[in-house]
Amino acid sequence: MLALFACLSGCMNVNTGGNKAVSENISALFSSDNLTKKTASENLTKLGEPAVIPLTKVFSEGDPVASAWAAVALINIGEPSVDPLIDLLSSDNETVRDWAGNTLAGLGTTAVPALIEEAKTGNNESKEISSIALIKIGEPALPLLNLELNTGDRKYSRDMKAIIQSIYATGALRERLSNETRSNTTGAGVLSN
């Protein structure tokens, strides 16, 4: 079975830098068996930093399930994933940019400083995706965003303020929807009794 995965990695555009364990596990992310994919993601997490670049290349292969497992591994690897993911925000491939942004959001506060920098200095696409990732991170991003707003270059103040306001608006919307869901659930329970 591993031979099949090794063959598959040669057929894909994922360069694993010659690391056999990384190569075999990257290939296994494309398996039709869910347990194989899960195990491969766990193994790649354990392999750590040497697996980061090959994992990011999975996003360009067009397989959303393999990409999701790659994102899980990158999030679990943590900080070494940040800079390579930031680099992908400038990709010509919109799907790759979206996977990178969502994975950075999944990294949470670990990614906040790099996302703020990209929101200030990146190209239009990377600025937008960085801003969205910061909004998805939400409240944990606020201390660094407020610091940037109060001490950073005034040139970026408007952008930082817009991100902060979006975080507050998103949080308020989540709270309102949560309250409505609770009241609907409670009301449904009362009606069925």
Summary of the model, kept short:
The protein has 193 residues and is mainly α. 75% of the residues lie in helices and 0% in strands.
Describe the structure.
It is a single chain. Helix 2 (20-28) runs antiparallel to helix 3 (34-47), helix 5 runs parallel beside helix 7 (94-107) and helix 8 packs antiparallel against helix 9 (124-137). This protein is mostly helical and 193 residues long. 35% of the residues are buried. The chain is globular and about 50 Å long. It has helices at 2-11, 20-28, 34-47, 52-58, 64-77, 82-88, 94-107, 112-121, 124-137, 142-151, 157-192. Residues 1-13 have low confidence and may be disordered. The protein folds into two domains: 1-77, Leucine-rich Repeat Variant (Alpha Horseshoe); 109-193. It contains eleven helices and no strands.
